[in-house]
Specification:
The complex is a heterodimer of chains A (699) and B (256).
Chain A lengths: L1 H40 L6 H18 L4 H24 L8 H23 L20 E2 L7 E2 H23 L1 H11 L1 H6 L4 H23 L8 H17 L5 H28 L7 H19 L30 H24 L3 H26 L7 H19 L3 H24 L4 H16 L5 H4 L1 H7 L7 E2 L2 E2 L3 H24 L1 H11 L1 H6 L4 H27 L4 H4 L2 H14 L4 H19 L2 H7 L14 H10 L10 H22 L3 H12 L1
Helix pairs in contact in A: 1-5, 1-8, 1-9, 1-10, 2-3, 2-4, 2-8, 2-9, 3-8, 4-24, 4-27, 5-6, 5-8, 6-8, 9-10, 9-11, 10-11, 11-16, 13-19, 13-22, 13-24, 13-25, 14-15, 14-22, 15-22, 19-20, 20-22, 24-25, 24-27
Chain B lengths: L2 E12 L2 E12 L3 E5 L6 H9 L6 E6 L2 E2 L5 H7 L1 E4 L11 H13 L4 H5 L7 H13 L15 H13 L5 E5 L7 H18 L2 E5 L3 H7 L2 E6 L2 E7 H6 L1 H8 L2 H4 L1
Parallel strand pairs in B: 3-8, 3-9, 6-7, 7-8
Antiparallel strand pairs in B: 1-2, 1-4, 4-5, 9-10
Classes of the chains: A mainly alpha (699), B alpha/beta (256).
Chain lengths: 699, 256
Amino acid sequence: MALVLAASVGTDLLRALLQGTPPGTVYALIALGFVLTYKTSGVFNLALGAQAYISAAMYFQARNAWGWSTVPALVLSVFLLAPALGLALEHLVFRHLRTSTALAKLVVTIGLSVALPSLFELIVGFEPVAGTTPQGIVPGGATVFYDPFGVYAFSRNELTAVGVALLAVTLLVVLFRFTAIGLQMRAVVESPRLTELSGVNSDRVSAFAWALSSLFAGMAGVLIAPRFNTLAAPDFFNLVVIGIAAAAIGRLVSLPRALVGGLWLGIFIAVSQTFLPRWSDTLTWLQPIEKDLTTAMPFVVLFGVLVLWPAIRNTRAATDPLGGVDPPPPSLASDSRSPGLTLATRAFGVAFLTITGLVVFFRGDASWQFVVTQAVILSTIFLSITVITGLAGQISLCQGTFAAIGGFTVFQLADRFAVSVLLAALIGAAIAALIGAVLSLPVLRLGGIWVAIATLAFAYFFDSVMIKFSWVGGGESALLQGTRIPRPTLGPWDLSDDRAFLVLAVVVFAVVGLAVIQIRGGTVGQTLRALRGSEVAAESIGISAARARMAAFAVSAFIAGLGGALLSIQQRNVNYSSNFSPFAALFWLVLVVSLGARTVEGAGYAGASYTLFDAVILKGTFLGWILRSADHIPGFFPISAKWLFILFGLGTLQYARHPEGAVEYGKRRAGARVEALVTRLRRGPDPVEVALSTEESVR
Amino acid sequence: MTTVLRASHITRSFSGIRALSDVDLEVAAGERVGLIGPNGAGKTTLFNCILGVLRPDRGTVELDGRDVSDLPVHQRARLGIGRTFQRIELFSESTVREHLLIAERTRRGDGRLWKDLLGRGRPRTDEIDRCDEVLDLLGLGDLADEPIEHLSLGQGRLVEVGRALMTDPKLLLLDEPSSGLDHDETADLATTLRTVQDAQGIAILLVEHDVEFVAGFTERSYVLDFGQVIAQGPTAEMLASDAVREAYLGTLDVSS
């Protein structure tokens, strides 16, 4: 009996091994692409998933919509488009960010991963069709099977993936070992500066690495596409997170280890898929999540590697012996602004909010009230990003998760214990704050870009595992009925009335906004500003970086939790996947960073943009108001809603130079111009300037 | 005289290479001590071990008789080790006065989130006065509201000194304060530092390449070479000794 069992375990293990190899090789391709650019240009490229998506979508479009045959479609999507995209990114974006901080580069790649898919879809006219599985690059890929060992039948697609990956890796080895550019790449990895001193153009080498990396991503995208039911950009973003997990196993810098990491991850997932159901027979708590735990494996692995292996974060900083001669990062705009400008901003803000509020309150119909309320609540949530990113300078990609924790707490407390939802909202915020504080302990030790990656892993872990527990997401009953939440009454006010709820939302936003302003000007804000300026210097005067950032994390999680709870109450449902999924939360960050992460005002604009940009601007409604007639809206409206993602995604490009955001930057420039004008009017023309302008006209 | 800093038997290796072996160093209250030696002698490593940036493999660091070997940087700072940086480290988005204000706040340790929320986190007049006193002492009074990007390197270094002074240090570690400064600026810096030290009576440990600066400023010096203290004593004697000349210049006939 035992022997039979052992034999069956052995067979299962072999089967899992074989089954895990094909996806493992694809993960390995992504990981290789990731390591290539990380090593040569220091860019932690989260946009790699978007690059993979573009190639996959291009291939799909060429085959299905344009009716091309396999080879030309493959040449176009993988061998032409992908490297061209990589070159374009290097040339137009990252070359100019070479001296920026790693964090700034990361933010730009996050923006790109939001913008690029929409941009591509718009240019090519590609629309993902739900339920149409993309085909592979060999005929009969999903229907013809081979079973070489008698335990697992490989589909043709899977074998192709393995073959292509092997070929790619072989070519990479040859490239690195035997060609001049390979040698130069290895040198650039060691030290771009030293390499340049010996007469190698490191820009050219870096461009080559980007093209190669993009080629790998594109190839992986086309190979993995048949595994999805529908082509969708978020799935490919998941893919890059898996790739990063694989690369993290290789300490992010070793190509061979990234390869092994990818394979290992694929096999590990398959093994856990095989054996978890057996364990869950005895461990009943495993049952609801056994299916999801396997998809969450990469995120667990990534989180574990980051947290348990802190040495990983020093890998790059320590490599370049000439790193010190790099010019310092561009100096940032000062955090202070003239008191006049602050006063003007606040006056304008209050006036604008009051007038819009009154108009919507008295004149708007139910749908406008709903959208505007949503904008106000999202602005509140976005204030959590103001705290963690604007004040503390940390990139957290799990703000959506904190908001979801607030929402689910309200749902659970109201559903099970009939707790008043407003009280439940506060409890939810407190729980989110607690989780934020606990999470910050391991995560914040990492610092810099690793906070972003670890919080991303946490967000995905929550997304694929935690949510399935009935004490979080409500289990099966929630699948049928949704996560219903009643509207509360507050004393004499019945908040099931949308107008009353709008007032509540505005009040909460105002209170939280004031709190953020107080924190920014107080000790905590000053401490965080010092840490943002120079961590070593801050510690040298006795500031505990860990404690200050933990406070910021907890406050930020509290705000997000409160906002998430409010949003759920407003929608009478948590609506997790449309409101709080990790990919949605990624876009939150992009919006806030684009518009202004330092100010309450920036969060307000971001909230308004998230819900109203499409409805008001892109649909042409605003123009209609100005023209006082809906009939005169020009024919090119409505503009595609994708522009929302494109505009704000590309808006992150300015983060490296202007972390204060577009709104603040524009305002300061305008303010400076006004000031200059006023002085000139008062004093008459400035003699120096007159001299300069005459000199110029003489020339 | 009481000993402020006592580092004993400090040993530290980097991947098999010994950067420091069995180094002893003491600084008494109010004393000005130099730490000199050629490049790669281990000065910076020793500095970092004292500050807590690095942990020595062996050896202890005592501050005012208290063993601080296991404490992280910020706790040692609170106990009274202040420092400046060789490559200047300022808070890029703060004004000159804000640098001192945050140090003052941290020293008091009464910054609490709830105080901020109640609007009591803003700088108070007594704090501002204390900062301005130090700024005047350093000759930075006129620059108090300037953002640091408007400062010269020498002024920036003084801001670092001022920031460190606000923490009420018992010992100030100066990491090559003259680097990047010209001759006159260095002389000014030495004068200012002397004024500060006379006013506050703190001990100063100085790592420095500028021999003239060390000679004029410190009373006593340690000479490090290949990770070991090869000589110590009055600075003038140290700089004149053959051991030091050899460590810096190699054998004498090569140098001529």
